[in-house]
Amino acid sequence: MSAIAVTIAGSDSSGGAGIQADLKTFSALGVYGASVITALTAQNTQGVRAIHDVPAEFVTSQIDAVFSDLDVDAVKIGMLSRAATIEAVAGGIERHRMKNVVLDPVMIATSGDRLLHSDAIDALRQLLLPRAHVITPNLPEAAVLLDAPVAKDESEMRVQAQRLLALGATAVLIKGGHGSGAESVDLLVDACGTERLAAPRFATRNTHGTGCTLSSAIAAGLAKGLSLIEAARAAKSYVTAAIAAADRLSVGSGHGPVHHFYRWW
User: Fold this and answer.
1) Which of the residues 89, 201, 206, 246 could staple to 184 if both were Cys, CB 3.0 to 4.6 A apart?
2) Is 99 an active-site residue?
3) For strand 193-200 and strand 183-190, is the pairing parallel, antiparallel, or unpaired?
4) Helix 56-67 and helix 83-96: axis angle, to 10°?
5) Per-residue pLDDT tens for 13-33?
6) Known catalytic residue: 211?
7) Is the residue at 184 inside a domain?
8) Selected catalytic residue, list 110, 210, 213, 240
């Protein structure tokens, strides 16, 4: 049987993040990828120029079409933009009893452009956090979810992860890519404890799509039967190598993408 993962997210017209990054990651890691598109973005490596939200009822139609036919092993959820879309996705999770749901609470693009309406944050907290197997916020996203200052060190990251668990999340991978220091440290926290995932921090501006890539890599690992800790470790290793190789690509004049296919190109 082929491992199958589905990404429910927005489209990045420049190919570096969103649906495009997710499908590249699935393919690079040996998983068949399908998609449910929640929004269309007109963007490039310099920023987001426009966003066109897919109607919630059509998001539902895509979910029902995919999950009524494909035997899906894992789901990655990314950009949802609006409360109505979040409600549609939450309904789909319940209706199709989705398993291994990885929620990346996408709020702001690498360029700084907002991708989630402020009035949709409560819906994300209430409807999706409790339904996810793991959530993968970066430091600014965790702060917004908690209405708190951005964590400044690992101790504060751990405290914020615990607070997210208290909101209903089963597990939290809080990402330290926005931090500083020689290492980029992520913390995987659940009811059993904390796993520290560290990797060298590379000096590159080509980091577009790193969050999408990490969450979809975790979903790929879960789809192949790895435990959450195993999937998170493998995803961290994959993303680190993709960032290290990013400067081998020459794409755009802004924040370029990571190199999803560094093993083959």
Assistant:
1) 201
2) no
3) antiparallel
4) 20
5) 999 999 999 999 999 999 999
6) yes
7) yes
8) 210
Catalytic residue chosen out of the listed positions 10, 209, 221, 256: 209
Q: Is 256 a catalytic residue?
A: no
Active site residue 221: no
pLDDT band at 51 (very low <50, low <70, confident <90, very high): very high
The answer to whether 209 is a known catalytic residue is yes
The one catalytic residue in 78, 92, 110, 212 is 212
Which member of 7, 175, 179, 256 is catalytic?
Answer: 175
Our count of domains for the chain comes to 1
* 191/209 Cα distance (integer angstroms): 29
Beta strands (DSSP E) in 92-181 are 101-103, 134-135, 171-174
pTM, 2 dp: 0.95
One of 25, 136, 207, 213 is an active-site residue; which one?
207
Query: Within a domain: residue 242?
Result: yes
Expressed as residue numbers, the domain containing 181 is: 4-248
Distance of CA 76 to the CA centre of its chain: 7
The pLDDT tens digits for 78-123 are: 999 899 999 999 999 999 999 999 999 987 765 555 667 777 889 9
Residue 55: CATH number of its domain: 3.40.1190.20
Is 175 one of the annotated active-site residues of the chain?
yes
